[in-house]
Request: fold
Amino acid sequence: MELPVSIRDVAHLEELLSEPSDAAVEGMRRADGDVIVLGVAGKMGPTLARMARRAMDAAGVAHRVIGVSRFSSPEQRRALEMVGVETIQADLLDESALARLPEAPHVVFMAGRKFGSTGDEPLTWAMNAHVPALVCARYRRSRIVVFSTGNVYGLTPHGRAGSREDDWPRPVGEYAMSCLARERIVEYFSKTAGIPVAILRLNYATDMRYGVLVDLARRVSRREPVDLTMGYFNTIWQGDANAMALAALAHASSPASIVNLAGPEEVSVRGAATELARRLGIDVTFTGSEADDALLSNGSRGWALLGRPSVDLERLIAWTVDWTQRGGDHLGKPTHFESRAGRF
Reply:
């Protein structure tokens, strides 16, 4: 895929985010049936489902892609159906609704809760720990890819390439704890019921409408000081994360496998904000100083198994600046990557 200098609009953005990699096409070619995406209406779900449909078409297979969500936005549901993704409206906390969902040999489980966790912790635990148990019981004859987060690792010293999959988790805050609970639940079902599972610890996806780079660009453009305390981060183009997730279906195993999805760079907040400001033609100010540790993940295992990211940091910064300058759409969902106490 030849990458553009500029992303024209949301339609162009979603076309790029859903462009399947060779590994994603091969993954859909090897798939022996339908793919159901649970929690399809989140930030990543729509373009992941669309990529699955495009990858199947490219592979010449006629299986269905089915997206399940509560669908608070009818427009989002219609948009998915227009590109060939079948949709079902359902609340995954409703066991009777879950029981009515169609069989599918491949499941991508994206449902979860992060923002709003502080102050309503019981719902966060229900979504992040109880629903996975219901899904594993319902789809115990399927292969399941489960999205998780690098937050389960806790803070790790910068300059050491980030946390690896075999590092012992040290989650900070109830959100991260509930995400580790999600992992332990699916690991239990994978081991006892023989369900092939791949757990993907993502850290952090970038779309022009949200992500750490977008948070920094918006802060710089508003001439707000940038806090340096969480001084480093990882980022990966959401299209690359989508493609790696689809490729991961072939690597699901029992006991469950764990794979980090992260970009290759340990990005400096100071460096990224300074470069964004330079390109935006704005002076940047900072508060605080960099701590010795941050939420950082080592993505090398994922690149070896699922393909290296196709979009590098230089291009992500250029796209982010261009999108910001032109007043491109924004989801209004900051990542809160700077939170060191795990409160979201």
Remarks:
- The chain has a mean pLDDT of 95.
- The two ends are 36 Å apart (CA to CA).
